[in-house]
Design brief:
205 residues, mainly alpha, hpI Integrase, Chain A, three-stranded antiparallel beta sheet, 11 helices, 3 strands, elongated
Length: 205
């Protein structure tokens, strides 16, 4: 059978749309419980870095001590997604914890090294560690490193930080990726009045 010049039939088959789910976000109280559920200073410092700076797990794993700039209170994220460098804020609380961790562990080349490998901690190890911390904290939500990044962005938005700043901190190429946190933020939803409320006030006047 001759097929030259004919469109492959699979190209004409419509694919089902994937459901777009809102990201899972922890409350500040749940974040605090999660941190308390860690079993070592290294793990606590790593989770605080993920949440306090909104980093991707791969970015946090590959941090070096030189990336922590205490003079400018910034963390340098090098060659992140899209091969772009960016700076994020360095929390004073995080800095204190990192200094305690540094004095106790002297990690060397990588800020969060793996076990005796000379390489950074793996993303898989971070996933397992955070799941165990969540279980100890009795958090029923499915928690991953990216949930801490979502929580960082949502909590910033709820504290009054503008979307453009959050976009830059997260390293999003398109602000449309950042806008989803408007749908997640409960405080923003509560601030918007339903037209039904206005209708009721008008009828009662």
């Amino acid at each position: 059978m001759k097929t030259l010049g004919l469109t492959f039939i699979a190209d004409q088959i419509p694919y089902p749309k994937r459901p777009k789910l809102l990201p899972t976000v922890l409350s500040p109280e749940e974040v605090s419980r999660l941190l308390d559920g860690t079993r070592s200073l290294k793990h606590r410092a790593l989770l605080m870095t993920l949440y306090g700076a909104g980093l991707r797990v791969s970015e946090a794993c590959r941090l070096t001590p030189a990336d922590i700039d205490s003079s400018r209170m910034a963390i340098h994220v090098q060659q992140a997604k899209g091969r772009k460098d960016r700076n994020v804020m360095l929390s004073s609380v995080l800095l204190d914890t990192l200094r305690q961790y540094w004095k106790r562990s002297r990690p060397g080349r990588w800020l969060f090294p793996g076990h005796g490998t000379g390489k950074p901690i793996t993303t898989k190890a971070v996933f397992l560690m955070i799941r165990k911390a969540a279980a100890r904290a009795k958090i029923t939500k499915i928690v991953s490193p990216h949930v801490l990044r979502h929580s960082f962005a949502t909590h910033l938005l709820e504290s009054g930080t503008d979307l453009r700043t959050i976009q830059l901190l997260l390293g999003h190429a398109d602000v449309r990726t950042t806008i989803i946190y408007l749908q997640v933020s409960q405080q923003h939803l509560r601030k918007v009045a339903s037209p039904l409320d206005s209708l009721r006030r008008q009828t009662e006047a």
